[in-house]
Amino acid sequence: MTDEPAPTARPAGLRHELAASGGGYLLGATLAQSVGQGAAMACNAVFFVRVVGLAPSAVGTVQSAAALTSMALAVVVGPLVDRHGARPVAVRLGLALAGAVAAYALVSGLAGFAVVHLLVASLRTGRQIGESALIAHLVGARAKFRAYQRSVQNIGISLGTVAAAVPLYLDTRPAYLVVILGNAVVIGVAALLVRAVPGARVPARPRERTGRLALRDRRYVVVGLLCGLMEVRDSVLTVGLPLWVTAHTDAPRPLVSVLLFVNTAMVIALQVRASAGAATVGGAARVMRAGGFALAASCAVFGLTGRTGGAWTVVLLVAGAVALTLGEMWTSASSWTLSYDLADPRAHGQYQGVFEMTSGVGVLAGPILCTTVALSHGFWGWAGIGAGFAVVGLAVRRLAGRGGPGVHHPVRAEAV
What we know:
The chain is an all-alpha fold and 416 residues long.
């Protein structure tokens, strides 16, 4: 158990914080988890459709149900984090998640897949809430730390997707099972790395009832919903753009991989720098506005490529991918700061749970908007989605830019 500074302290540099707070263990856990995640993202759907024999539509339906379930459970896990401690909850749910992921190997039909996948999605959300609350208690420069974490995550996912080429080439049940069980192992290793994080002094849960403190914070909930809507950007990149390029432009199909590579490389190289202006609530609000405009510009450029030809199409698509990635980095960095600095320090678990729940809005709405608006209505569909990004950015600037969080009552601290 160590005497770490209160959450409001700001040590001189992130390197000092990593050494003092154990943040290096968290980055190691992120790398381990993301390597397994990258391989699983490339192989799991193929395994369940080709090997287990499930219909693609059934897999998609279960995934949507899992997303809704996770959103609902997020507000339940938050109070548990505040009550039992961020680190213990993150570790226990991480170890449970490792076992649940391993259970994928036993799935033989739709019912089994539904049960296991709902369990995996719920445990993953709970673990994420625990880790996010742990960062709130341990790290002063939270936005900068999350930026490093995002870069590490992209490196790990890239390594995992490259490694997944082997089982995808072999296309056999044993090869896919290696991916599943390997993912379970690295998730377990990540949980043990989180367990190695030293204790921290965090606000004790006050005597007054705080069961719905975060849900009663209307400003926080609304800002969380707006930040969640910004996550439609992920569907633009992974759903809308690939379908648009291959079906509505004359660009070569392999360009899709190039655009995804541009996104990944930029996040790895520039996410930390992109978070520099988002270290305060006011700065995050301004950066969110800039991010909304960048996402709007990218959508307009994508829409134009349905009317261009040849080299101009390729140039515009690359330019749009660059603008999209800038918007992604800026809005992500802003969301991290707002999720922590607008929260009541007495209940970081609750607040992170609410923020995790609201972020699911964009995850659910994104594929629908991309397929029914952008792909169906061409340039004007893309322009409409872009206008939405701009409006959301302006709304966050107005709500969050009014100042920091409200006055919270000081509380004593206890080790967790």
